[in-house]
Amino acid sequence: MLRQERISDRDEASVAEYLRQLGLRAEPFCKASKRASKTPDFKVFRDDDLAFFCEVKSAADDNVQGSRNDPTYNRIEAKVYEAIQQFDAVNPSLDHPNVLFIVNHDRSSKIAALTEVLTGYGEYEGEHGPELMRVYGRWSDGRIREGKERIGLCVWVDHASGVKQHLFNSRVPGHPEHYDRLCECFGHVPGDVSCT
Fold first, then answer.
1. Reported pTM
2. Spatial separation of the C-alpha atoms in residues 124 and 76, rounded to whole Å
């Protein structure tokens, strides 16, 4: 557990530094708030304005070998579910966007697994080329079914390379302005940002 806490601390520091490079300021919640309820890791400010809430999840390698089922999808779903609960504790009416960073430490996991968990669809080679097939509904339509829509942006960070890929949600219920705000904060052009 101590090793995982150190990894999480390093991942949070790395994300805070990335946000600083974007001209944003990540401030952790005070200890009293953390004791009172679940909270995300940061309140993120642009100048003096609260821009969004941010949660950082570390996804470690499960060292799966042999014929055992791959736990990747369960792990990602669990991280998303935990983040939803943390966001809802401080932002139940979605007054501000919610941003989830998943820092991936598992060399065999890729952003496709996150996309598959969130959408339920995977891309497979069909008779006439790539086809989307709905095969991941077990995760997408499970306990994260409604809450996942409350996350305005998921950022997949490959720990080994530092590459960051962004999955924007332009359909946050009742808050279409969140999409534009997050595009502005992360330097993306609206409409051209599904995965960068």
1. 0.89
2. 20
